[in-house]
Amino acid sequence: METGTTEPRLSTYLHARACRTGTPLAGNFELTARCNFNCKMCYVHLTAEEQQRRGRELTADQWLAIAEQARSRGMLFLLLTGGEPLIRTDFRYLLTELKKMGLLVSVNSNGSLIDRDWLDFFRHEPPFRFNITLYGGSEATYERLCGRPMFGRVTENIRALRQLGIGVKLNASMTPYNVADMEAIYGMARELEIPMQLATYMFPPIRRDEALVGCNDRFTACQAADYSVQWDKLRLEPEQFRQRAQAMKQGMALPSEDEDCQGTPGEGVMCRAGRSAFWINWQGGMTPCGMMTQPIFSVPEMGFARAWEETHGRPAGEEDVEAVYAQFEPKLFSILDRFSTPKPFAVETAAALREMGLKIGSTTGYTDSMMHIVAPKAARLGYAPDFWISPDGVGGRGRPDPYMIFENLKALEGPSVKNA
Asked: How far apart are CA 374 and CA 367, in angstroms?
């Protein structure tokens, strides 16, 4: 199990490039401030009545329009968060349409609302990753901190997502109400063999209620530092802990576990907020980071491009997007052969279909050059469609346009779209 940063190196590299070019590579869409939990330390949670007083949430179509604008400016990574995003009745529509844009969509969730119906949906429409916060190691801790005894249900759902092959990362926010469960939470992560990120310091809840600053359910800075050291002792080998302690003693900057707060190699500013990442709250206000209240720019009123320009400080043009992609593509080619393994049951399913006398066609978002790496390795591992085509074969008109499907029908001599 990972004990350091949970971010892939390729993502780190792309963010470093995006920070230099001013490309909005990663977005955070705060879909709602509503939640079925009432965690004592939450910085954003509002009751339905409080939220209604402050204004309406953006509609799904408004979010999709913003996403399309952001994608055209270079956004690749998107995090759907809240509140609890699954509380929105249009979440399935949102996730499905966002994935069609080619975005890598992750979801922040408390994991308690997932049921069989949700699991069936995620089986067919999985997010890039689920980030699930585990608030304790027992029902009693959950009830004490969140107001609801949901430990068993959440851990059951984590296991179910893992069984579907969906990537899960565990988040843990330490407070006076659950810090005694730190070892139990870490033990759960080790048992499930999933990466874990733990935070002992939380930003004051100025977005929720400024009156709570200084008298809220958080640790003092000294307490947070002390528990952070305890976390290091728990997760690191003795030599790793010694080296980390020595680095801290010498005043050296240490890598952050928080993917949103990773530093940029070779640069002094140790944060991506407003440089390659942005946050849009449930009312459409863009800030560099979800913890900030200023500067804020209304995306529905200004449009994404201008809001990002104001947030970042200069416009990101097509040349910036191309610059990031020029760095991304060689890196992708260098590792592509390591990600050519067929999904579980794909080989068996293809074999069963062929026994039924069916032909198998395939479309992809990869280029021909990429497929010349992927297809041979997949074939050696047992999966080889009768025909495949990339956007290169249809003049760049790939998904969501239907032309690759039409080429499959021609190649496989399908009698009609209806019967394919």
From this structure: 10
Sequential DSSP letters for 39-92: -TT-SS---HHHHHHH-PPPPHHHHHHHHHHHHHTT--EEEEESS-GGGSTTHH
Q: Decide if 292 contacts 281 (C-beta within 8 A).
A: no
**Could you give the 3-state DSSP secondary structure of residue 26?**
strand
Q: How many CB atoms are closer than 10 A to CB 400?
A: 9
103 neighbors 76 (Cβ within 8 angstroms):
yes
Q: Could you check whether the bond before residue 295 is cis, i.e. omega within 30 degrees of 0? A: yes
416 phi/psi in degrees, rounded to 5: -165, 160
301: Cβ contacts below 8 Å, ≥ 6 apart: 284
Q: Fill in the amino acid letter for 326.
A: A
Give the three-state DSSP class for 364.
coil
The C-alpha angle 202, 205, 211, rounded to 5 degrees, equals 140
Burial 178-196 (b: 16+ CB within 10 A, else e): bbebbeebbebbeebebbb
CB-CB contact of 280 with 299 (8 Å):
yes
Rounded to an integer, the average pLDDT of 270-296 is 87
**What pLDDT band is residue 212 in, cutting at 50, 70 and 90?**
low
Integer Cα distance of 220 and 116 in angstroms: 41
> For all residues of the chain together, what is the average pLDDT?
86
Q: Give the amino acid at 305.
A: A
Half-sphere exposure of 317 (CA within 13 A, CB side): 1
pLDDT at 142 over 80: yes
Are 297 and 311 within 8 A, CB to CB? yes
**Of 36-45, 81-90, 250-259, 378-387, the least confident:** 250-259
> What is the spatial distance between Cα 122 and Cα 83, in angstroms, rounded to a whole number?
20
- How would you label 51-63 residue by residue, b for 16+ Cβ within 10 Å and e otherwise? beeeeebbebeeb
| Model pTM score | 0.73
DSSP letter (8 states) at residue 155: H
> Per this entry, what is the length of the chain?
420
Are 231 and 200 within 8 A, CB to CB? yes
CB 34 within 8 A of CB 84: yes
